[in-house]
Amino acid sequence: MTQVQASAPGKLYIAGEYAVVDGSAAIVAAVNRYVTVKVDDENLPDDLRCDLRELATENLLALVPESRKYYGVIASEKENYKPIFWTRAYDGSIEIPDDEKYAYVFAAMRVIDSYACECSAPNMDRKRYNLHISSELDDAKSGRKYGLGSSAAITVATVRALCKWYGLKPDMSTICKLSLIASSMVKKSGSGGDVAASSCGGWILYRAYDRDWLESELGLIKSGESNFSKLLRKKWPRLEFKRINVPKTLKLLVGWTGSPASSAQLVSSVESSVESSVSSEIAHPFTYQDFCNQSEVCVQKLAQSLEKSSLKESELNNISACFAQNRELLQKLSALTGTLIETPKLTRFIEDANFAGIPAKTSGAGGGDCAIALTTIYEKNRVESMKSAWENHGIMPLNIEVAEAPDDGENSETCAVQAAETCAAKTQETCAVKAPENQPSQTIQNRKDAHLALADAQYNPRANSGFDSVRFMPNALPQLALDEVDSSVHVFAKEASRADGTSATADGTPASADATSASTSILTPSFLWRSPLYINAMTGGSSNAQKINAQLARVAAKTGVAIASGSLSAALQNNALSATFSVIRSENPHGFVMANVSAGTSQSDAMRAVEMLQANALQVHLNAAQELVMPEGDRDFRNWLKNIEQIVRSCEAQHVPVVVKETGCGMTARDVLRLRNIGVRAVDVSGRGGTNFVAIENARRSRGGYDYLADWGLTTVESLIDIQKCDALKADPVEIFASGGVRTPLDVVRALALGASAVGVAGEFLHTLMHEGEDALLQQILDWQEQIHVIMALLGCKSVADLRDNTEFVHSDCLGK
């Protein structure tokens, strides 16, 4: 007899419940209660090991169905080992009997059967086998579920066992993906966090894959256009599962209310209520999107607090605060949807723990099942007091600890990661950041990572950015060929004051005295961009941001577009973070790079920022709305104009052009005039409709409070129109860059036609990078460059100047043209 076995642990959600279903991060922990699956060929005599094709006579099968030979039995301890017989169809595929109790088992069997064939597994002759399933996840006496993720553990254990049976040795990342595939074939609505915990063990930071994408991929497999091996090699949009290295001194405590709950029913109830609230015309002060955004920030904070090398009191306080915030968010969700998440017994559990000074919360969907508490191994007296209170209130303390993945004697590779921020990296490439000698501020890094997570969470390709109101009058007779279209632009070719009275030519080198008059104006360097498109300011200041900046810079280098860094304020405060920005230049040594600083930055720091990136230009950002809503933001803007004037003088003396840009609230003609009067010659209007930093900072606040400012400011289109109508700016123009809510190549052309010299994109490109990868972003920008030419040809325009001068709009009186 041949026999193998494999086990998979159960799970408990630590934070991020419900929001994980829609793409927000969650923390899940594997627990030391296991499902074990044994595979053998016992009692399968030769006369039963026959190929069903030998019985391929329709009459025989119809008359004597019981004579069909079986390929094995499935028996579960939970069903008192009552056997279920399984067999294969004529083509060799596994037939699934009508028995929901084993739905996940059969899904795993079918996936591994196909995958083993594709891999030419060493033991493919083992087509017949028995499965014996035992579980520690339920109450031994009553059989009631504790809510430890039995479906996921059964799926993972079956996948692991059958891989062994066929002689396959997949790593844990592959085990996880195979199990996610099998699980999704049974229940498409799950997040997969339980599968990730059961596959990898330990503490896991998890973000769910795109369910629609996976369903589409499985459709290709079903039609024969793809297979499981190809699917495993692909980058899964949005999927992230990585270990959190939690200190051994941290102890997870679990209590069971005695009331089983159906996670599927609770999640379905919440989803139905959310759909109703979205379609309703009634305005809610707290929306489901608010819940997801704030949950993301809470989970990221908690993950960072858990991963400390030593748990100090301040770090425990952070964990406690995160638990309290997560509980509050779940209570708000419960009120919003009318779903009972925290039952009276769960409330009692939490209050007993808090009374003992231990943070606690519900786990999973709530409605019953378990709750969790976190403390250290040194708090024995508090723990005993708390457990005693639980028992007095009818809550059963469970002897459960966080478990690593079980060692079944096979290769025990560490859990592979396909994180959102690194999904663009090459398959085997690492982008690790060496820790600097002077450790960077964790607060800054936390904030930067929260910005990234929330920016991605609020991404909406259909957001109202005003561009859809701009409709071109078509040109039925373009009178040109596509290859005649040239979208290149000259930027920063403007006169500016210069103290020494000399001037510069277009390439930035000083001109001879004969070439200029004795005036005090110069021509700052003119740069030729072969595309009017540029990657606008995004991030920096954390290791995750460094990886993203490296990827963006490589794409910029390959496509020839300009790129701007995120705000360098963090690096100016802490030089240890400079590498998270300077990687843009190291990965893009010959490209056009813009550094970015705040309007409150001193003249000397602005020049340091330029030097740090060896930048060709400097962006100075205006973000008063963001600063005021940001809990730790600036509150004094009296010196902004003065600072900007000094920065402009210093930079232009070094032939470094300056662009003053908004950060999502737009600019009026009056704003531009005030900037022009202090020497600014280029602005980026950066209007409403793209990444919303007011909403991001509001989500970071413990109680929000500024939801009503989410639509503050002008859209990019409104800003461009206001500037275009200003007579004073027609007489003495300022170069206009446009960004904010740009989602398509058509939006780029619209902005150019409304007077922009170039158009920046941030949120759209960041979303592609984080969910589809570096190669996908590269292809997207190449496609956009080509499509910009196509749209210009449709309009009969050979150049960007033609777009500004020769295009007409529908309802042009509303657009200033």
Automatic annotation (TrEMBL):
Positions with a binding annotation for FMN: 537-539, 567, 596, 661, 686, 691, 741-743, 762-763
Domain FMN-dependent dehydrogenase, first and last residues per copy: 643-805
Presence of the UniProt keyword Kinase in the record: yes
Gene Ontology CC annotations of this record: cytoplasm
Cross-referenced SUPFAM superfamilies: FMN-linked oxidoreductases, GHMP Kinase, C-terminal domain, Ribosomal protein S5 domain 2-like
GO biological process: one example: isoprenoid biosynthetic process
Residues bound to substrate: 447-448, 626
GHMP kinase C-terminal domain sequence ranges: 326-393
Subunit note: Homooctamer. Dimer of tetramers.
Function: Involved in the biosynthesis of isoprenoids. Catalyzes the 1,3-allylic rearrangement of the homoallylic substrate isopentenyl (IPP) to its allylic isomer, dimethylallyl diphosphate (DMAPP).
Protein name: Isopentenyl-diphosphate delta-isomerase
Organism this protein belongs to: Gardnerella greenwoodii 00703Dmash
Gene label: fni
